[in-house]
What we know:
Oligomer: single chain
Strand order of the largest sheet: 1-7-6-2-5-4-3
Helix content: 40-55%
Amino acid sequence: MALDIVLADEAATIRFGEDMAMALKRGDYVALSGDLGAGKSTFSRAVIRAIADDAFLEVPSPTFTLVQSYALRIPVAHFDLYRIADAAEIDELGFDEALSEGICLVEWPQKGEGVLPAGGIALTFTHEGDGRRVAIVGPEPALARIRRSLAIRAFLDQAGYRNAIRRHLTGDASVRAYEHVTSGAARYVLMDAPRHMPGPILAHGKYYQQIAHIAEDVKPFIAVGRHLVSRGLRAPAIHATDIEQGILLIEYLGSEGVLDAEGAPIAERYLESAACLAHMHGQPFARDLPVADGIVHTVPDFDRDAMQIEVSLLTDWYLPWKRGTPASEEERQDYIAIWDGLIASLPAAEHNLLLRDFHSPNIIWRPGAHGIDRVGIIDFQDAMIGPSAYDVASLVQDARVDMPAALSDAVLGHYLSLRESQGGFDRERFIRDWHVMAAQRNCKLAGIWVRLMQRDGKPAYMRHMPRTFRYLTRALSHPDLAPLRVWCEKAGILATES
């Protein structure tokens, strides 16, 4: 279905260009049609400046050069075909190469008829009063992205942040994306988290996200975030919500993390993060957390099914990739049985709120604060109730960072000392459960890296694989994990990856 938008003036055209910049992705061809002065160049300039995150970037018209290229976060090539004599000239301008690497904005696309690809995003600008009207047609996936971006703009307007500036912040390995939003002198983070689409049914009539207790909407983020704050931890304040659409405007906690400029862990920041976990684990957890009037989020248990489906990623994805053949049925059954035994031992472990991904990408360092308030927590929507050792393993064995052995030991030791000072803490039992949870997490991650590469087209995560197996080797050093260590050795995966 086509989209039709009325832009009241040039400012509205610029804002529309910024909104389109948030919707475009690598490989998008945008055809811009309309009379002279209809707004094509104004729109293009706004798109390019938004992607560059530079409101003053020089963006000259390509009327005489025919094409202007910009090496940005996503490369952009801005074409003006008005002066070409023959559509065949487009090949000489490098259109195909530019489209393979980034976004192509093309003014006067009718001059390239027969050469330019079909199926692009077409915007037609027409004068209307003091403003202009834009008709948008294109493939449905692209229109869905544009509609989503315009819905976010409407959300900001309705929440009182009219004319806020939107800029790309990041996306992660899930469907969530994040933006920086600036309104006046204030800066915020917008979470764009549309509801998960159900996947294939795997077991018990459920799909993966349901079995693994992956958040399917923004309700858990709202509930858990406010709960963390109530327990003296630093999670972002929530300024505006649209629960149905999955859009949140939250506090911007800063841009500093726990790594230095070279990507190495900063000891002080990891130690304080461990203190943050010790503070949380020293308090009783709550299961039923309010979201809004009449809405309660019940934090799920990290149960057998969730643990098993996560560790099965190793046999389902990692082994077939590593060996070129699927795991045998005997290997699968032995692996499941080993994990059933380990999981059966965990009810006696200390349980608390489990944040799930408490490591460097999700920790903000707030140098102007004090104590654990310096540790900003930004990812907790998948929280569960489970062994508290899990989050400690996630921090001590940071999946994205080479943690020196001495620092890993210091971070774990600091946590243990703080917990012992609280009283009633079983150090020996916790260390044993730490090894089990570290093994569970790293078996999961080994499969996730391959799945991200093969299914999702994100091969960069594979760089973490050697580290994951070094961590797994350490986790398997506990005597209680000897059966799993033997299974891994027989499968031939420890020696090759560690």
